[in-house]
């Protein structure tokens, strides 16, 4: 699987149509907490849910409960600073302020008339902090909170992980590496790819449009005339020509005639980060996780080579941006687990896209031969 490129494996998202309820899931290295249905990133051993039918208020991205109308944020390299307006609230002493910071969560409350009022509450800070080194103080009518970053090299565009902060912050991680959207639905691939391209300032490319423009016929008529294998071969040639491109989001063909669904057509897909948009009938994250494991172990489905997996139950075109947001969050966590990944992808391209990084093959390598 492409997880060998990513070292830590792929990322899975799960879409649920169930009513909101609280879920908790932990792994050896990650713990995720979110109300369902929400979006959150995960590798093969953790889960992120999405609901196309109940809206996409993303807990892991931008779930912020606040009674304040304004806050100021700045990134000071080793720490980030959050300034919350206290306004006309009467805060006689520091004992009336409650600040709780832990990992990627932050809760700030102020005591008023014997009860606490929430100023801000999120479990989706842009990235992890060192909670023991949190400092806060009152500066005139502002509450100032300094949070120490765990990753000093990562620049925070905002205090929380949101569509806007992910769009702005992903560029520093991707370093121009292209993204390929794969999955059984060409329509879903196209719409999510467009959202990602706009957010990142990348060039949107669509293998279906390229094929139809070149051949002057629709893909459906081509399949009827020459069969699925012919279309898959042609798309594979398109992917080869696109593999040297940078800063592009490529929507690929879905279905049996798509190259990405075939294990022997991934040579040039490995040149970029791949996101598998996988529709599922799973009813919860455990069954979605098990389904993903079966796909990887079976290995017969080309999509299982993807770096990132987004599982969704149901589809609504209006929520393409939410799937794009889930993809960006998952890619962020993937790259942070190995910041050399974009460089490894680039090296793979420069060496001729042979084999599956890090097992780069010699010139003349034929992916169809077992050895």
TrEMBL record:
Q: Which PROSITE patterns match?
A: CS (PS51203)
Q: Which GO terms describe its molecular function?
A: kinase activity
Q: Which Pfam families match?
A: CS (PF04969), SKI (PF01202)
Supply one GO BP term.
Answer: response to stress
Q: Does the keyword Transmembrane helix apply?
A: no
- Domain of life assignment: Eukaryota
Q: Which UniProt keywords apply?
A: Kinase, Transferase
Q: Where is the CS domain?
A: 66-160
For this chain, the family text in UniProt reads:
Belongs to the shikimate kinase family.
What this protein is called in its record is Probable inactive shikimate kinase like 2, chloroplastic isoform X1
Source organism of this protein record:
Theobroma cacao
């Amino acid at each position: 699987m492409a997880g060998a490129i990513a070292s830590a494996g792929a990322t899975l998202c799960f879409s649920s149509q169930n009513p909101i309820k609280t879920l908790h899931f932990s792994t050896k290295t990650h713990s995720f907490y979110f109300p369902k249905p929400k979006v959150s990133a995960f590798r093969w051993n953790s889960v992120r849910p999405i609901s196309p039918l109940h809206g996409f208020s993303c807990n892991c991205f931008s779930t912020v409960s606040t009674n304040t109308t304004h806050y100021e944020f700045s990134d000071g390299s080793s720490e980030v600073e959050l300034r919350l307006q206290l306004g006309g609230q009467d805060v006689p002493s520091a004992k009336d302020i409650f600040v709780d910071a832990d990992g990627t969560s932050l809760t700030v409350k102020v005591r008023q008339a014997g009860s606490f009022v929430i100023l801000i509450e999120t479990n989706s800070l842009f990235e992890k902090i060192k909670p023991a080194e949190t400092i806060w103080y009152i500066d005139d009518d502002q509450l100032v909170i300094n949070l120490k970053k765990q990753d000093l090299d990562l620049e925070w565009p905002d205090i929380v992980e949101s569509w806007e902060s992910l769009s702005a912050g992903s560029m520093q991680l991707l370093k121009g590496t292209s993204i390929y959207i794969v999955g059984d639905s060409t329509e879903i691939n196209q719409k999510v790819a467009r959202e990602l391209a706009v957010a990142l300032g990348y060039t949107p490319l669509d293998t279906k449009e390229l094929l139809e423009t070149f051949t002057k016929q629709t893909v459906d008529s081509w399949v009827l005339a020459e069969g699925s294998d012919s279309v898959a071969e042609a798309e594979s040639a398109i992917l080869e020509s696109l593999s040297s491109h940078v800063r592009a989001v490529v929507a690929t063909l879905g279905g049996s005639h798509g190259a990405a669904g075939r294990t022997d057509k991934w040579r040039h897909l490995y040149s970029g980060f791949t996101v598998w948009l996988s529709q599922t009938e799973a009813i919860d994250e455990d069954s979605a996780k098990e389904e993903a494991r079966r796909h990887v172990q079976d290995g017969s489905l080309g999509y299982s080579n993807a770096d990132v997996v987004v599982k969704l139950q149901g589809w609504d075109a209006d929520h393409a941006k939410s799937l794009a947001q889930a993809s960006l969050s998952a890619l962020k966590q993937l790259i942070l687990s190995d910041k050399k990944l974009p460089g490894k992808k680039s090296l793979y391209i420069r060496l001729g896209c042979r084999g599956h990084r890090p097992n780069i093959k010699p010139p003349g390598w034929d992916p169809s031969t077992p050895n």
